[in-house]
Design a protein that fits this description.
By secondary structure, the chain is of the alpha/beta class. 38% of the residues lie in helices and 25% in strands. The protein binds nicotinamide-adenine-dinucleotide.
Length: 308
């Protein structure tokens, strides 16, 4: 019986982005194969506190993440991830800021690998907050970038992130823009990671062939993408029940009649039976517990040297 506590730095040292992407991909395939028991997360105080449990049936292991969300502080999202092994009574408690950023990047990496054009190399990243760096790292892991343009309504944040990523993503030309429409116009891949309540750019600003990741909106009152894009694109989502309840993009486009529920393809299904994508593709994620489980399982395997 062991309980191990891992700080953010330890999480980062144990799980590189490439491994996180592979782990999250495997977990979504297992999800559609019925291996996970995963209720829709509980949102208290209109998303101010989130509780996310998941149980992996074949191994009798489980994970619970608890988060508190407050956009008036930085980081906006904090909490803990707890992984448990029922047979061995082993537990890992890890910092949720790092796990969340890592797994949210990783799922965008999985979707980008599946949906983005083969030679895509120019990324427009909108949002320069806590999730942003891992969004860029994950896209770069699956589609090596030549150009990265960062947009944030807070120009200082965009400049700070550009400095970090310039040092890290050697050979990538990193710039900052204050014009989201112009930035997406020159991109092969667009990643949106903001807390916006209104679309970040109009459909007409996008190139004809583009893949768009949207991770920011997790309440029906928030959205980053225009309805017209949702209506036109091949739309892959993390989990149907979750986006129907929480994604402003999905709820708004359904209400406007630009999409039907049947148009939405779950990531696990898309991985096992890849869709023939339209020229524009969208990946919408609100974040589900199985992503955190995937990272927690890796952490447990490494930190406890247990068989999981
Ligand atoms: N899908 C998921 O699994 C998942 C996981 C974590 C966070 N999130 C969500 O993603 C969003 C970003 O998270 P974060 O932790 O980086 O938040 P954050 O508060 O650290 O950063 C958000 C950034 O978006 C910028 N922004 C907001 N509106 C904008 C706009 N209209 N145009 C340009 N920039 C704008 C802000 O200036 C800020 O820099 C939040 O809404 C968060 O709840 C989703």
């Amino acid at each position: 019986m062991t309980t191990q506590v891992l700080t953010a730095d330890e999480v980062r040292a144990l799980v590189p982005m490439g491994e996180a992407i592979d782990a999250v991909r495997d977990a979504f395939v297992s999800l559609v194969e019925g291996e996970f028991e995963q209720p829709t997360r509980t949102a208290l105080r209109d998303g101010g506190f989130l509780v996310m449990p998941v149980h992996h049936r074949p191994t009798a292991t489980a994970m619970v993440k608890t988060l508190s969300v407050n956009f008036d502080r930085s980081p906006a999202i904090t909490g803990t991830v707890m992984w448990s092994d029922a047979a061995r009574a082993d537990h890992v408690i890890a910092d949720a800021v790092s796990v969340t950023a890592l797994r949210t990047g990783a799922i965008s990496g999985v979707a980008t690998d599946l949906l983005a054009p083969a030679g895509a190399s120019r990324l427009a990243l909108i949002g320069a907050g806590a999730q942003a760096a891992d969004q860029a790292r994950a896209v770069h892991a699956v589609r090596p970038l030549t150009h990265l343009v960062i947009v944030d309504r807070d120009g200082n944040r965009a400049e700070e992130l550009a400095e970090v990523l310039r040092a890290e993503l050697v050979g990538v030309r990193v710039s900052v823009s204050s014009d989201a429409a112009q930035a997406v116009g020159g991109a092969d891949i667009v990643s949106c990671a903001t807390s916006s309540k209104t679309p970040l750019f109009p459909l007409a600003a996008l190139p004809q062939r583009v893949h768009v990741n949207a991770i920011g909106a997790f309440r029906p009152t928030m959205r980053e993408l225009p309805d017209a894009l949702m209506g036109e694109a091949t739309v892959v989502v993390d989990e149907l029940d979750a986006v129907l309840e929480e994604s402003g993009e999905v709820v708004h486009a359904l209400d406007a009649g630009t999409i039907a529920k049947e148009d939405l393809i779950e990531l696990g299904r898309a991985l096992t039976d890849p869709p023939r994508p339209t020229e524009r593709t969208v990946f919408k994620t609100v974040g589900v517990a199985v992503q955190d489980y995937a990272i927690a399982r890796l952490l447990a395997a490494k930190a406890l040297t247990a068989r999981v």
